[in-house]
Amino acid sequence: MASTNLSPSAQRVQDALKAFGLECAVLELPASTRTAREAAQAVGCQVGQIVKSLVFKGRNTQSPILIVASGSNRVNEKGIAEMLCEPVEKADPDFVRVRTGFAIGGIPPVGHLEPLKTFIDEDLMAYQEIWAAAGTPHAVFKLSPADLQMITKGQVISIK
Ligand code: 5CA
How many angstroms is it from 80 CA to the middle of ligand 1? Predict the structure, then answer.
């Protein structure tokens, strides 16, 4: 059942999901879901099933890049840079807010102010269901890896 009275940021994510035709309901939980570990604890899944939506920035172009990573993986920035032919760095909180419309700790994989070039961690594809942030450090939603790929149009790669 869909949550009622979602906070505005969570509602934006819910609206984006609906626009993609997904049935999944954004849940706002009393417990913190700010980190992958906390989110896994809050929903009762493995940390690897948590979708981390990490914003990087091309150092030359200043373009935002979204890396959608399994909660148990660390992004290999050198590998991403080689693929993009540009060095990348983790974006600072202001850049993230201005370019996505959301604050760190609740960055969702969709619903951003502008479509972001997106890469998906191949390790996420091994799970039947995964959980992503939905706009706030208390909001999450469950989806399948195939739906994650459909809504982000991300390229599936090894990000480790
Ligand atoms: N809601 C949880 C689970 S989905 C979540 O958003 N996790 S996360 O991993 O996607 O977002 C937290 C990430 O934000 C951290 O892993 C870290 O990479 C990044 N982060 C935290 N603080 C900063 C900061 N000051 N500057 C840039 N990135 C940061």
Answer: 18
Q: Give the Cα separation of 128 and 130 in Å (integer).
A: 7
Cα 122 to ligand 1 centre (Å): 19
Structure tokens at 2: 């869909």
Q: Is the dihedral of CA 107, 156, 152, 119 positive or negative?
A: positive
Backbone angles phi, psi at 43, to 5 degrees: -100, -10
**What confidence tens digit (pLDDT) does each residue in 37-77 have?**
999 999 999 999 999 999 999 999 999 999 999 999 999 99
- Distance of alpha carbon 106 from alpha carbon 33, whole angstroms: 8
DSSP letters for 106-121: S--SS--SS--EEEEE
Domains of the chain listed by start with CATH number? 8-157 (3.90.960.10)
Whether this prediction's pTM lies above 0.90 is answered by yes
Q: Ligand 1: does its nearest atom lie under 6 Å from the Cβ of 35?
A: yes
**How close are the terminal C-alpha atoms of the chain, in Å?**
36
